[in-house]
């Protein structure tokens, strides 16, 4: 008989072997007929215009990550709402603390301006040379 850890080890070995087998089988059996159509960039049925390897603005990824973080955190509200009456005041206090932390995070992200797609460039003040020349 295998212990629980032994069963997990056997399962992991089988999983790794299965993944290796599938990758090897796909490498051996897939059809190798490249064509211009297959090697072209696919854009939802539209023909691409210009260079297909463009650098995206980093703000796109920042907004997407912030959305995912807040979206996943909000998912915790649903199980809490189901058991709220059974758990009483403790559940209310815990969720209030959780929501306060989320609100502070949201205010921080807003204050940094990471949710605005078109972030204004910072204005760097410049000293005029005339000011220094008039003091001589």
Please, could you describe this protein's structure?
The protein has 136 residues and is mainly alpha-helical. The protein has a single domain, classed as Methane Monooxygenase Hydroxylase, Chain G, domain 1, CATH 1.20.58. The chain has six helices and no strands. It has helices at residues 4-29, 36-39, 58-75, 77-87, 89-112, 129-134. Helix 4 packs antiparallel against helix 5 (89-112). The mean pLDDT is 81.
The gross shape turns out to be: flat
State the separation between the terminal residues, measured CA to CA. Answer: 94 Å
What's the CATH topology name?
A: Methane Monooxygenase Hydroxylase, Chain G, domain 1
Mean pLDDT over the full residue set = 81
Structural class assignment: mainly alpha
Topology readout:
Layout: H1 4-29, H2 36-39, H3 58-75, H4 77-87, H5 89-112, H6 129-134
Helix pairs in contact: 4-5
Keywords:
mainly alpha; 136 residues; Methane Monooxygenase Hydroxylase, Chain G, domain 1; flat; 6 helices
What's the short version?
By secondary structure, this protein is mainly alpha-helical.
């Amino acid at each position: 008989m295998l212990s629980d850890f032994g069963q997990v080890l056997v399962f992991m070995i089988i999983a790794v072997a299965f993944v290796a087998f599938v990758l090897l089988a796909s490498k051996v059996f897939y059809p190798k007929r490249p064509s211009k159509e297959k090697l072209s960039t696919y854009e939802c049925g539209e023909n691409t215009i210009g260079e297909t390897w463009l650098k995206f603005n980093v703000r796109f990824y920042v907004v997407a990550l912030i959305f995912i973080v807040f979206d996943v955190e909000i998912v915790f509200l649903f199980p809490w709402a189901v058991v709220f009456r059974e758990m009483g005041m403790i559940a209310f206090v815990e969720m209030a603390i959780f929501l306060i932390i989320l609100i502070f995070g949201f205010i921080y992200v807003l204050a940094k301006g990471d949710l605005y797609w078109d972030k204004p460039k910072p204005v760097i003040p410049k000293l005029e040379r005339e000011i220094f020349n008039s003091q001589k």
